[in-house]
Amino acid sequence: MAAAGCERRRCACAAVVVVLMFAASVSAAGGAADGFITWDDLSIPAAAVAAPGGVSEGAMGGGGAVKARARHDLETIVVSQDGTGHSRTVQGAVDMVPAGNRRRVKILVRPGVYREKVTVPITKPFVSLIGMGTGRTVITWNARASDIDRSGHQVGTFYSASVAVEADYFCASHITFENSAPAAPPGAVGQQAVALRLSGDKTMLYRCRILGTQDTLFDNIGRHYLYNCDIQGSIDFIFGNARSLYQGCTLHAVATSYGAIAASQRSSPTEDSGFSFVGCRLTGSGMLYLGRAWGRYARVVYSYCDLSGIVVPQGWSDWGDRTRTKTVLFGEYSCKGPGASTRQRVPWSRALTYEEARPFLGRSFINGEEWLRL
């Protein structure tokens, strides 16, 4: 994990520079819906759902005219594997969104298993990716960090993602993101396999599933809100340096021995990042740490969560560096379940008071009042 950590840090720094540059240009130009994400951004117009593929009869077949029209004036782009939409692939639909886009574009992904890697680039904000149900619409790939790309180099954890979101104001709902690579045994090198990487700012996921084993969700940078989502993994299956609120989510462990839920990369007290889990439920197998101190100032808080007995009594890991115990913030507030007992927790974790937990309990943790209108 040490080598992987160095690689992640380099990739994250490069991504920060690009994100800041493009975010400044979008901010100056203005954005869709006054820069707020609403429930409407997570739903599809009835006409798009009712029609086969969501397009008029004359547009069936996904030919060049359809693609041109989608690229310029369609607010809903339909993906259908049978060719009755605008694109047969998810990436093809993303490609139709114009660079520098300033309005909400919804991509409806009709039922099917889409075996492809997908990237929503930084130049295409305000994209909604909407499935027809997590059991019906699945995007899956099987890359691992140790895989070799066409240039003969390892792809690394950063580029192993089945779906990578680098754009701001991204939404997704009712869809499954999966990395189907074989499960990594504990201690294995180069077996990290990301299902979803979030590298944009102001992102919301609603009723999505994110499935993998080691390093399932690369919650890289930015502010993110995951509501009623299911996230599955074994080792550090939520990791990164984002500032994210997980509310009402199910965290499902598939560890065969020891594993961990969250690995926060926060490396400085000036970084406003970390993970807050509110009203979430932990299920599954193995013996799980609630969090590991990937960064020296790692910050992870669980509040009102239902923790099963698979939590190790100590609760938290210092990543093998005892000096980090003086700088991390690992906290729990008003959790329940057999894994919620704090009697044997490491002495450097904290049982928070309400006043201490309050900054982590609501959308204000991610400045939601500035970009969420739900």
UniProtKB/TrEMBL annotation:
Compartmental location: Secreted, Cell wall
GO molecular function, one term: pectinesterase activity
Keyword annotations of the record: Aspartyl esterase, Cell wall, Hydrolase, Secreted, Signal
First and last residue of the signal peptide: 1-28
Pfam families: Pectinesterase (PF01095)
Pathway(s) the chain acts in: Glycan metabolism; pectin degradation; 2-dehydro-3-deoxy-D-gluconate from pectin: step 1/5
Domain Pectinesterase catalytic: from-to ranges: 77-368
Enzyme Commission number: 3.1.1.11
BP terms from Gene Ontology: cell wall modification; pectin catabolic process
Catalysed reaction equations from the record: [(1->4)-alpha-D-galacturonosyl methyl ester](n) + n H2O = [(1->4)-alpha-D-galacturonosyl](n) + n methanol + n H(+)
Active site positions: D236
Superkingdom of the source species: Eukaryota
Family: Belongs to the pectinesterase family.
Name of the protein: Pectinesterase
Source species of the chain: Setaria italica (Foxtail millet)
